[in-house]
Specification:
This is C-type cytochrome biogenesis protein CcmI. It is found in: Cell envelope. By secondary structure, this protein is an alpha+beta fold. The strands form two sheets. Strands 3-2-5-6-9 form a five-stranded antiparallel β-sheet, with no helix packed on it. Strands 1, 4, 7 and 8 form a four-stranded mixed β-sheet that branches. Helix 12 runs antiparallel to helix 13.
């Protein structure tokens, strides 16, 4: 984009220089113009005199008329042509022309230097090339597709981040960068992008949303743990807006995981109250309904669970899984090492739909991945038809895969069903290098 822009700019500057320089370089000096007119008048005089002489010799006109017409022609010629300049006057005019010629080339040289320099300096001061490049990078991210989409997004997000760092006053750019990092599961970078977004938006509510999104990214990175980063971002969001929906959603999930269903209901019902048009309102209502069911209380009408076309209770849908450790790694893993088991949508870079946090000492373990293990209201396993299952033992306790982790992935998608079903066996049989 940059090279193309400057090539077009150079062409336009060249055209502008041509309009300025053409009359200076190729214009005809006044003396040359006068000489041309004088020569044309002399040529016309001689031609007409020759015609008069031929008419007199042929007897068309008599001698008296010939002399009268010749004298009139000579007078007219003197008026048009004038007297020949004296040599001193000619030399003086030549000197003036030389001076004008040098001045002309000085103007040419000055224009050739100042015009391009002025264009560059003024555009750097008032131009918007960086914003154009940011917009183009954003468009490219949105339009990226195909099998190599992840690698393509890596390159495009890197370009967008560089341009945003050079010219950070672009809320749309930071928002897109954060969403792109979320799709790529680069949660810390997504969180920092949303924090940058909070610094460039004007309204308190918009800043609160940005901090809420940052909290959500840190929450995903910690696989549902309320780390310092998560709580700090949530506190910043709630200072600006106590009812910021992303923060309320995370607080509800954390409360649900601790089986504090009353608190989960309070947070999620507040979302229903303040954001009835929330794009994930149906999932939030299902979370509220499930919390009421865990308390053994009647579900309010506003939180009635959805049913599928087959009449299933959607919020009860999930996957039963049995996680085992391959015999080749027996004795290598400490029992207190963190174990993550999660399900995600096939062929997707979105956040996991359900995550269970255990320890290696629990293996082998049978569990059910359902909406109670959702990381956010908008990412629920009940809304998926099938999922890919994975488990990872992390000696560092970190959510992101790194060398030394033990991992097992079931590449073949498994169906999400309502009620009991045979557990899907997932074996941890690989160590990351």
């Amino acid at each position: 984009m940059t090279n193309t822009f400057w090539i077009i700019t150079a062409v336009l500057v060249g055209l502008a220089l041509l309009f300025i320089l053409y009359p200076l370089v190729f214009g005809r000096p006044e003396r040359r113009i006068n000489d041309d007119i004088r020569n044309q008048n002399l040529l016309a005089y001689r031609t007409r005199l020759t015609e008069l002489e031929e008419e007199f010799q042929q007897g068309t006109i008599d001698e008296e008329n010939f002399r009268m017409l010749r004298d009139e022609l000579a007078g007219a010629m003197l008026d048009d042509v004038g007297e020949e300049q004296a040599p001193k006057e000619v030399r003086a005019e030549d000197l003036r022309m030389d001076h004008r010629r040098r001045s002309t080339w000085a103007v040419v040289a000055l224009a050739a230097v100042l015009l391009p320099a002025g264009v560059v300096l003024l555009y750097q001061e008032w131009g918007a090339l960086a914003k154009v490049e940011q917009y183009q990078a954003m468009q490219n991210i949105e339009q990226s597709e195909g099998g190599d989409r992840l690698a393509q997004m890596e390159q495009l997000t890197s370009q967008l981040r560089e341009r945003l760092e050079a010219q950070p006053d672009n809320p749309d750019g930071w928002a897109m960068l954060g969403r792109s990092f979320m799709r790529m599961e680069r949660y810390p970078e997504a969180a920092r992008a949303f924090e940058q977004l909070a610094g460039v938006v004007d309204q308190d509510n918009a800043r609160a949303v940005a901090w809420g999104l940052s909290a959500q990214a840190w929450f995903f990175d910690s696989q549902g743990a309320l780390t310092d980063e998560v709580t700090n971002a949530m506190d910043r969001a709630r200072e600006l807006n106590p009812n910021e929906v992303n923060t309320l959603g995370l607080l509800g999930i954390h409360a649900f995981e601790r089986e504090n269903f009353e608190e989960a209901i309070r947070h999620w019902e507040k979302i229903i109250e303040v954001a009835p048009d929330h794009p994930q309102i149906a999932s939030i209502r299902e979370g509220v309904a499930q919390a009421y069911q865990r308390l053994g209380r009647e579900v309010p009408e506003t939180a009635e669970p959805r049913t599928s076309a087959a009449g299933e209770n959607v919020s009860d849908r999930g996957v039963n899984v049995r996680v085992e450790l391959d015999d080749s790694f027996a004795g290598e893993v400490s029992p207190d090492t963190t174990l993550f088991v999660y399900a995600r949508t096939p062929n997707s870079q979105t956040a996991p739909l359900a995550v269970a946090r255990l320890t290696a000492g629990d293996l082998p373990v049978d569990l059910r991945l359902d909406d109670s293990m959702a990381m956010a209201p908008q990412f629920r396993i009940s809304g998926a038809d099938e999922v890919v299952l994975a488990a990872r033992i992390s000696p560092s306790g970190g959510a992101r895969p790194q060398p030394g982790d033990y991992q097992g992935i079931r590449e073949e998608p498994v169906p999400v069903v309502s009620g009991d079903s045979e557990p899907v066996v997932l074996t941890i049989d690989e160590q990351l290098r």
